[in-house]
Every structure is written in structure tokens, then in C-alpha cells.
């Protein structure tokens, strides 16, 4: 396969849009015919749907962190960080949150979200931002007090199957699919040929306000955004690597649960089927 092809990513359609999907698929077709320019008959060909995937880098980047401050009568600071930069599908994301409230107000309505951002460059410049995981703890930081807490979020496809516009690795009908992995773009590659660009960001938000029913309207928001990478680890088993003319080809067996391989008749040298 040529280098820098887009990954196999499909946008999940709405329930009313059955059989209408947007994404990138790859198909390998083998056929037999007398002339290459003749019409290929279905009974003379075999097609195999394959996926192109990327695996997590072996050397992850620096753990994301960020700080947000609101200048009230005294500063209020929100400090958030992740324990690492790369997470594998199904792993919990640990978020360390520290709030220093030097004001006479309250810090409340803390909300953490994992947002999936999909840039569709196949045919237009559409962008979808979908919350795939969220957490709203009941913690409140009173005046002249602090909070230190570690929260955990795990984004899973199982909790997003009914959402329209979610990007998937493959199609929803495949039992072994999951939320789309982060798209890694090599330096110098035109992003427009990558099909669908997927990224993730964890947002930590809190409200600084006084007590009272109408106090939240005049409150101030604290927001920290932490971009991270969500991918599969490079597999060890069931992977075959072939080096040919300096090009590494990696083929992975994606087993379909509940499906048995189709039996193929064996043919001996005499042409008889066994």
C-alpha cells in the first residue's frame, strides 16, 4: 500500500440514516478474466475488506497540563494535568485537579469532558465536536480554601452507540470496533488527503460565583484544555512484518467475533476439487 494513505475511519450515521455512512474503506479484490478491460463478473472475483490503522508511538510526548486564573477580589486558580500523553482504548484517563480559591466566592459546577474532534476533509471542511465521556463531581470549593482531587474518565464506544457524528475505527456493525483513534499526520503530508482527522481533548471547567439563585449568571468560568492521544498499542501477536525494498508492511488479523472462516475447496495438480 502506498505511504500516507488515510486511516479507516467511519462517521456514525443517525438512526434514521441507515446504510448512509461517511468514511474511508479499503478493499482488496482478486479476479480472473481473459482481458483486463472486460467487465469483471461477481462470480469471477473475491473481495476482502481491510482496515488501515495506526498504532501508538513508542515514545509518547510530555504529559499535558494547563492553568486557568480568574482575578476576583483575590485570584482563583484551576490547575489540571494528565498522568501521561498517550492512552490506549479502554484505559482510564487520570486527571489531577487542583483549585486554589483565595476569593470570597465559591468554586462549583466542576465538569470534566472528553471531546472527540473530527475534521472531515473528504469532500468539505466539516468539523464535529462530540462529548464521548463526561463527569460532574459534587465538589464545591468554599472561600479561602483549596481542593486537590484525582478524577477518572474512560471514553468507550459502548456509551456512545446512539450518538450521531461519532468517528469510529471501522463500522458500528463490526463487534471489534471502537472510537476512532487519534490521527497522526507525518510532517510534510497534505492533511486534505487524510480523509477524516480525529483528535481528542479533555476539558476541565468550573464556575466561580457567589451563593444565591442568580449568582451563577454573573459568575466567571475557569477552563483548562488538555489534548491527548487515544490509540491502540502496537500488537505483538498475530502481526506479520514484511520488509521489501526498504518499505515495512504490517498486516494484522482483525477477527470478527462469531464468524467462521469460509471453507475453500482444495484443488490438486490434476485440477480435481477435494
TrEMBL record:
Pfam families: Arrestin_C. GO terms for cellular component: cytoplasm. Residues 72-235 form the Arrestin C-terminal-like domain. GO terms for biological process: G protein-coupled receptor internalization; signal transduction. InterPro entries: Arrestin (IPR000698), Arrestin-like_C (IPR014752), Arrestin_C-like (IPR011022), Arrestin_N (IPR014753), Ig_E-set (IPR014756). Residues 1-20 are annotated as: Disordered. SMART domains: Arrestin_C. GO terms for molecular function: G protein-coupled receptor binding. Residues 1-13 have a biased composition (Polar residues). Belongs to the arrestin family. This is Beta-arrestin-1-like. The lineage of its organism: Eukaryota, Metazoa, Chordata, Craniata, Vertebrata.
